[in-house]
Every structure is written in C-alpha cells, then in structure tokens.
Amino acid sequence: MTEKWLAVKDRSAWRPEDLDIDRSWQFEVTQDHAEELDRALKGVKMRGLAFGEIRKEDFPLPSFAKILKDLLSEIRDGRGIATLSGVPIDYSYEDLEKLYWGLCSHLGIGITQNVEVGLIHYITDGDLAPKNGAGILGKPSPVSLHADLTDCVGLFCTHQAPDDPKSLVASSMTVYNEILSNHPEYLPQLEKGYFWSRRDKHPSESSHSEFRVPAWSIKGKTVTCRFNAGWIKKGMTEAGVELNNEEVKIFDFIEKTAAANSHAFSLEPGTIAFWNNYTTFHGRDGFAEIEEEAKKRVLLRIWLDLPNVRSFWDEARIRYGAIRHGQLGWTAKEVLEGKNRDPHLRRADGVPSI
C-alpha cells in the first residue's frame, strides 16, 4: 500500500461512554413487527422451505424492513455494533432458525461457518452443542476480544446463563487511532500482516493461509481491521514463523488497548447483537458452569456478507482471505448447487478469486 495512514474520525471510532450517551445502536421489535415476523414464518413453513432456502423475497417484512435498513446502516456505517431486542422466541428451534435466517436475509447473505457446512452455529455447552460441528463453542470460560471471519456476525440469544455474563464490544478503529498516536512504528508490521490458521476446516488444504492478511489496512480514507490473535498466532506457528519479540509487544498493546476501551452490556433472551468485524472486536465475560439443561446458555450465530460493506486495499485478500477455504465461506445457494464440493477458486498467489 502507498496510502498515508489517517486517523479515523467517524462514528466507528468510539469510546465506551459514547455508547452509554448515544443509544442509537439499540433497536427494538414492536408488537406489529413481531406479528410481521410470525406471518413471514408461517408463509415459509407453508411452502416447505428449509431455512437455507429462504430469500429476502420469501420473507416479506413491509414495515419492519425500515428498521432493519437503519440497523444495517448502524452496523456498516455507524458504531459497528447494533442490538435488536424483543425478537419473539416462543418457537421451536427449527422455527427459530427460519425466523432468524429470514430476518437476516434483509441485512445480508449468510455463509457457512464450519467443515460440516453449517449456516447457523449453536453456541452452548448443552444438548444443542452437537450442532456446532467439530468444535464446541459456548463453554463458561471468558472469551477475549476478537473479530470473526466475515463482514458481520450475529448472535441471537434464546437462553442466557443465570449469572448473566456481559457481552463485550470494543472499537478496533479506536485501537487503531491509539496505535497511530502512540506507536506509529507498529503500522508497517501490521500492514504486512500475518498468516491465518484454517483450524483444520478442510483436510485437503494447507493448515494455514499461503499468504499474509494485513491486520490494518487503508483504502482512501477507509481503514479496515482484520485481527484475531488466536487464529493468527496458530497460523504463524503452522507456517513456521513464530511471532518475534516486537510482534508480541504489538499484540499485547492491541489486546490491552481493546480491553481498556470495551463496553459491556447484557445480551438478554430475544436479543440479537450484530458486530461489524472490520471495525469492532467482541467477546464476553465468563460464567458459572451449570448442569441443568433448561438453564444452559444458548446463542445462535450467523455469519453475514453485507452489501456495499466498504472499500478495501485488496478485497480478495482482506475480505475473503481468512474465510474462503474448505467448507467455510459458501452461500446457501452455492451449497444447494453443490459448488462447495470443489475448492474455492484462487489467484496465482493463493488468494481467493472474486
């Protein structure tokens, strides 16, 4: 890249107190909206559609669509975090999957998240855990601040743990501004980027990306973050390139700065939280382990590609480099067409083709 690093001055660079003062990132489902959701759900059930077959036009939300348009704008162009509370949850999980997928079809396109080609990932340590595929997510231990692999992640809470662990969000644009102000010497290494682990999501491919993905990059005035310490550290080890002492120091600064600027909030049953993975980090506090199944914490995760999400220095490398491998990164339509049986197409340098 040859572009000059610029401070981020828009609403995506925020401090925790900003989210307390300005609650425009919080949205609510009204009774009328809930009735629209129910009618749309009944419509797709009458047609016998599986949730992955549901498209936006199959799930009409005449008045609610305006709220979802504003919510999408907040995710994409605003704070990068948005919550939607009051979503009806008095349904079977089969119906909740259809309702959730149909609602999210008004925001973007859902994509696969694991080697089992899963489009909705259950985050729980209870009986629904097998739907996670190969890995169990949702164990009681704390989850450090991180970003997922797609444009946006949605977490739909259907049951919360009794001690109500707080969800966390931090602005990766604020972290970037702190780097720019205090340690600009870190930026060349962060721009060079890192190899990402593929977490054994496809045995026929390399264990890690064959190319580096910039942790922060800039295109014009648009700064983009692609940072997940866990995936990067594992990927660097798999590539035979351990982090050096300076990089360890950089990672430590990033993680401490994110934690110091994180906002905590309750994710209550019937609430969906959406995070922009280019401008925010998310995590949660730990919670007490419980045996009673009815009290287990359950979240439904969707990974979304968003329309017109932002400008990238190299869209294929930054947007898709960490997600398009093995059975990850396929749309429901591509899965139904069997395209996921073949590897993702790649450029000569190993970066996914777009």
UniProtKB/TrEMBL annotation:
<dbReference type="GO" id="GO:0016706">
    <property type="term" value="F:2-oxoglutarate-dependent dioxygenase activity"/>
</dbReference>
<feature type="domain" description="TauD/TfdA-like">
    <location>
        <begin position="54"/>
        <end position="303"/>
    </location>
</feature>
<keyword id="KW-0560">Oxidoreductase</keyword>
<protein>
    <recommendedName>
        <fullName>TauD/TfdA-like domain-containing protein</fullName>
    </recommendedName>
</protein>
<keyword id="KW-0045">Antibiotic biosynthesis</keyword>
<dbReference type="InterPro" id="IPR042098">
    <property type="entry name" value="TauD-like_sf"/>
</dbReference>
<dbReference type="GO" id="GO:0017000">
    <property type="term" value="P:antibiotic biosynthetic process"/>
</dbReference>
<dbReference type="InterPro" id="IPR003819">
    <property type="entry name" value="TauD/TfdA-like"/>
</dbReference>
<dbReference type="InterPro" id="IPR050411">
    <property type="entry name" value="AlphaKG_dependent_hydroxylases"/>
</dbReference>
<dbReference type="Pfam" id="PF02668">
    <property type="entry name" value="TauD"/>
</dbReference>
